[in-house]
């Protein structure tokens, strides 16, 4: 069992060492946006950050913001996205707990992009039309989710909604965080670093009124006159919480994030009576693409059956793979599309090349006849441009009939899947923490990865659904905690 | 915590008092179908039933089988349903763990209907086109799910798939069970009643080889040479399991089923190492319709917001309502559509009539301005025949602008919601029990409500998704346990 810290009463605290209107725990993208908005709404803000500087996991990320509804970049390239189409896609795919939160995010999404640019976050007017997991150059716009995938393509008009910060390399998130952190400094928002919030203080009426902070030289108590915003990241690196909620993640799976993503934020919320959501949601990513041609292959499980449309977003494919017997799966290709997966980190091993499908089936120890049957059926349908059950899009359909064939092992116990957890505290549309029965806890907010993501399972995630909603709901929580209305 | 019975080793048993090839636990629809198929495949079968006779919760149900793909009744009325459309709907709405199981069910669904008729289960060639929760007459075909609901209507061609047994009254299930039970008798399949399976016997290799049965006059041990089929129903009436998995069900919620639906089947499976799925899935039903005109009203939560398309299947509406703040919601109508809900059991109370929306908002203690804003927005869109976020179908859209207005309280703590749990043991496409890592447990099967349903949450359920898949996978498990191939 995971230990939840004890919540303190004001009596136990005695007196306050310091006081602010709004205390923000964590200075990743959600906390930074909360602090900026609370400050600009006239609140006296204090940021409390465990690390020696701001940035958090956001600064280690690939810097993609999922935004749409007609952003400046979408319009630049002629995409006619709008809030309705974006909301239709997210409502249909994400199984959101709170439709109103989705509606607000989609309605304000294009304006929120402008706001980010106004803060100095750099976005180019450039576009990538291929299939990639992330880009290492500064290109901005890209499809990062399941918009073009059946059945979502039938529900809403697909538009690319991944907006990457114009930073080089795998960790472009740093280039997005730098201007936001600079704004905090320029506007004189105080922050204390190397400071770990170890408990919340809650009064007899249930209102959260302050925090206990552990620093290298002792403990201090900080009063929060209006509210506490938990923006302390995910529980990716809390091994106990992972084992309890996500037992199928293999031993070779690797969490993304910083050591501070140990679930402290979630546990603080639980201590004050907050509920959680989607704690078993995860994106395990071990993409088979690039190169895109591998999507024309098929993925089969230990029963020799396909189980996911291979053109799914890589996190969706990973999630389905995780649920297969023994977490085992193989990517099967023929000679026409053969290539090694470029994803070096995932380390998908080539099992071998085979002159016949029968040999391959035997070597993979699949049930007799199963792979032959699966491939015959797949090839006959692909010939007609159809995939009647899993609905892989036509562009990726071709009969796999040009031997020899090859198989890559993409099983969870062989390959390395990077993962991001999606669960966290239950929150309302202003980031207010909710009890399991959805009642708000006065004075307490959770945003970013300490809150449950909008998508409740990894099958619905798109790259950018952490930074996009995280930054937006961070802003809303900041204003709400400061006592101000949302003005967009 | 819920106590799981201890699994026994053959050594602990000593010797067998009785022996069979296949032991079927429970004689509801799934167990009966399993027994018939195992027997007809040449196995020596023994049915072990806790009650004094067969029927189980199936005989207490409204007798609806969810079947499609072009059944005789669908064809009779000119519906062009096929396995692809049915599978597309179920794949998109049910979030199934096992696409292959869905494919098999849809492929064989029309044949399975014929099989049921061949056993003597009576179905009329009659159709009901209105909106009802269940019918009390003998009419057969009816839309019972979310097929016509956005977004599913965009993904697959809607067809009615609820097939009701030709029995009178609310419990037409009995008329479906009677001929199936008669077949068991006619074919000489032995059954022992008042007999409670209290433990499974599992050998050192992990194979389930028998059961311990408690009877009024003592304990007996029954060997199962080929397999044990758990068909012992749901955990609806296990208060501990409900509290642990479904904390949001209110105290006024009432389980459907028989006292034997106490989770014993699920717990037996767990004792042998089986995994579970969808344990937090539930259909809470307290339908607002009939009459259908009430669907033209809107449902709002404590924040004065809509949260579900009001034309959803009643279990979907109930599921969304359960997730709202404090589990509270109201149905709002104007004078043009005013009517009392006919659902006497749910007992939705009229709060009052109101001359203005402002008065109603104040009386319901909704945030100032919230209901006025929601209704203005709804009415303006309805005027254009639109519902841009929740997508209620055009037929049900009309501006609610003909005062006076009325509100019905449909909150979980006021109304009575009947519920059916969807969770249960993880199973493969032949009903074989699977470990949490999806490996089969040799000799162990689970079907019907002891297994997890295909839909993993109540938002995707349709009436008949218990009896339909339950009877079909019961047949498959029976044949598989008997060592026979599936022949349809």
TrEMBL record, chains A, B:
Its cofactor is FAD. InterPro entries: FAD-dep_OxRdtase_2_FAD-bd (IPR003953), FAD-oxidoreductase_2 (IPR050315), FAD/NAD-bd_sf (IPR036188), Succ_DH/fumarate_Rdtase_cat_sf (IPR027477). One of its GO terms (molecular function) is oxidoreductase activity. GO terms for biological process: steroid metabolic process. Residues 21-452 form the FAD-dependent oxidoreductase 2 FAD-binding domain. Keywords: FAD, Flavoprotein, Oxidoreductase. The keyword Flavoprotein applies. It comes from the Bacteria. This is Succinate dehydrogenase/fumarate reductase flavoprotein subunit. It comes from Novosphingobium marinum. The lineage of its organism: Bacteria, Pseudomonadati, Pseudomonadota, Alphaproteobacteria, Sphingomonadales.
